[in-house]
Amino acid sequence: MNTLRLGLLRGGLEIKQFLRSRESVVFTLAFPLILLTVFGSVFGGEIAPGVTFTQYFAAGMIAAGLLSTGFQALAIQIPMEREKGILKRLRGTPMPRAAYFVGKVVMVLAIGLVETVLLVAVAALFFGVKLPSTAGRWLTFGWVALLGIAACTLCGIAFSSLARSGRSGPAVVTPVAIVLQFISGVFFQYSDLPSWMRGLASVFPLKWMTQGMRSVFLPDSFAPQETSHAWQHGTIALVLGAWIVAALVLCLLTFRWTERD
User: Fold this and answer.
1) What are the transmembrane regions (predicted)?
2) CA–CA distance from 218 to each of 54, 139, 170, 231 (Å)?
């Protein structure tokens, strides 16, 4: 209980530090909203009967927002803290090490919730995206979002060990996040991508997160347009759960409190 209490206090501090960093706020919170506004305003045609590209893109951007909050933000932020010696100093305090990670999780959940609400609100108010009308769809939205952000958070912590310094973090992380968005059905209709690209994307969580979000915000009549001709809720849960376990193991094996010599 003491570790949890300290972790929650640490989470409040993490949120304050995040909001005080203009760069973090812009690229984590504002950038997905800007992309949604630009693409939603430019591309408005139908990709299937009763389904516009904006509806399709909005569902993908909600998933991409979770990727940005969980994976991209942590994989950039942690190397910077490591380079500045913050992690080394924290390790030398009486604070349990687990409290540091609890604080990161609290920050990611809070920022992810805010970003998701903003994206859903903008999509519904300005681009005609219909909100889920049944409890079942809201339930699907909830478990896809929770599993997705859990997988992205753990992947971000594990990936943070690849950057050799805080300054190299954005250069290492940002291209990975952008490529994943392009091949996972965010900017383009997934079924129109080359088969090798779809195969590569299906290995990573974002593809399954976008598919899960499409099952929430698009009508069931669109399901046959998917490459599997179904929403595949069971497979989505299985893949995201597998990534959570795999990323947790990687975190335990690779996380570093100090820089490499």
Assistant:
1) 25-44, 56-78, 99-126, 138-159, 171-190, 236-255
2) 11, 15, 33, 11
Is 204 domain-assigned? yes
CA distances from 80 to 73, 77, 170 (A): 11, 5, 10
In terms of phi and psi (left: phi > 0; alpha: psi -120 to 50; beta: otherwise), the region of 188 is: beta
Domain that holds residue 222: 2-254
Is the residue at 260 inside a domain? no
**Can you read off the two tokens belonging to residue 188?**
């383009």
Residues 6+ apart with CB under 8 A from 129: 54, 55, 58, 59, 120, 123, 217
- Please name the residue that has the structure tokens 């490529």: 179
- What is the spatial distance between Cα 172 and Cα 74, in angstroms, rounded to a whole number? 12
Domain count, the chain: 1
**Token pair of 220 as six digits:** 């069931």
User: What phi and psi, each to the nearest 5 degrees, are found at residue 16?
Assistant: -60, -45
Residue whose C-alpha is closest to residue 174's, from 31, 14, 17: 31
What pTM does this model have? Answer: 0.93
User: What tens-digit pLDDT sequence spans the chain (261 residues)?
Assistant: 688 999 999 999 999 998 888 877 887 888 889 999 998 888 878 888 888 899 999 999 999 999 999 999 999 999 999 999 999 998 888 889 999 999 999 999 999 999 999 999 999 998 888 899 899 999 999 999 999 999 999 999 999 999 888 888 888 999 999 999 999 999 999 999 999 999 999 999 999 999 999 999 999 999 999 999 999 999 999 999 999 999 999 999 999 898 776
Q: Is the residue at 156 inside a domain? A: yes
Give backbone dihedrals phi and psi of 43, rounded to 5 degrees, phi first: -105, 110
